[in-house]
Amino acid sequence: MAAPAEVTLRDLNGYWVMGCVGRELMFCVESLWPCDGINWLIRKVVSLTTITMRVIETEDATGTIHIRVEQTATGGIKGETEERKLDWSPVSYVSGVFGETNNGTRWASIGKEAESGGGGPLHPWLTEGWLDEKPLEDQRSHVQNWVVNVKSGWTAEQIWGFAMVDGKPYHVRKFLVKKRDEEAKARMVYDWNGMDK
Fold first, then answer.
1. What global pTM score does this model have?
2. Distance between CA atoms of residues 39 and 134, nearest Å
3. Alpha carbon of residue 145 to chain centroid
4. CA 81 to CA 56: how far, in whole Å?
5. Which residues have a Cβ under 8 Å from the Cβ of 34 and sit 6 or more positions away?
6. End-to-end Cα, the chain, rounded Å
7. Quick count: other Cβ atoms within 10 Å of Cβ 145?
8. Maximum CA pair distance of the chain?
9. pLDDT tens, the chain, 197 aa long
């Protein structure tokens, strides 16, 4: 289901499903993985899995936003929990699928001045096709996540926002994965599945 008007990046609380409509509408995420060293069998199982995310978004006493994502999955894959603090502070994380990574997450602008987590300008593909979000006072309007895999060396940059898909607004995350000279892009579209059950 498309996202209701009251759901924004400043209030993602609720359940989101990558699958159902999302699986039909997204650019296949499996296209990201040939360049990041993930076992083919794991890639295939994950590509056939429906992942439900419970998102809990809170603000601490300093005004920093925290986003907790609790995942459950079909197909026997253990759900993972992600903790994101939108202040660009470095966080180490070990995933059963992606291995050990170093991450940073922040509010970001997607205008001409937008910067990549790896330095330099943000890739133009990551900045295109978004609905207008009400920006913060300094024009930051989207969520940016930068990931470096400790063992394999690949990097992944994500931008989160909302975009029109088949004429309806959906929560979307764009990914750009790089390893040496290889580059892969994907867009994931998430179905809104309501508030806490």
1. 0.84
2. 40
3. 7
4. 11
5. 182, 184
6. 16
7. 21
8. 46
9. 888 988 999 999 999 988 544 444 444 454 554 455 555 545 555 566 778 889 999 999 999 999 999 988 876 566 788 899 999 999 998 877 678 899 999 999 888 788 999 999 999 999 999 998 776 666 678 999 999 999 888 899 999 999 998 899 999 999 888 888 888 888 888 989 998 65
Select from 73, 80, 137, 77 the least CA-distant residue to 109: 137
The structure tokens listed for 2 are 């498309």
Specify which residues 24 forms β-bridges with: none
List the one residue out of 103, 111, 108 whose CA is nearest residue 85: 103
The encoded tokens of residue 19 equal 């699958």
Two tokens, residue 116? 């990549």
Q: Is the dihedral of CA 159, 171, 81, 183 positive or negative?
A: negative
Can you tell me the distance from the alpha carbon of 88 to that of 90, in angstroms, rounded to the nearest whole number? 6
Strand partners, 63: none
Amino acid at 91: V
Q: Are 20 and 194 in contact (CB under 8 A)?
A: no
* Beta-carbon contacts of residue 123 (< 8 Å; ≥ 6 apart): 116, 157, 176
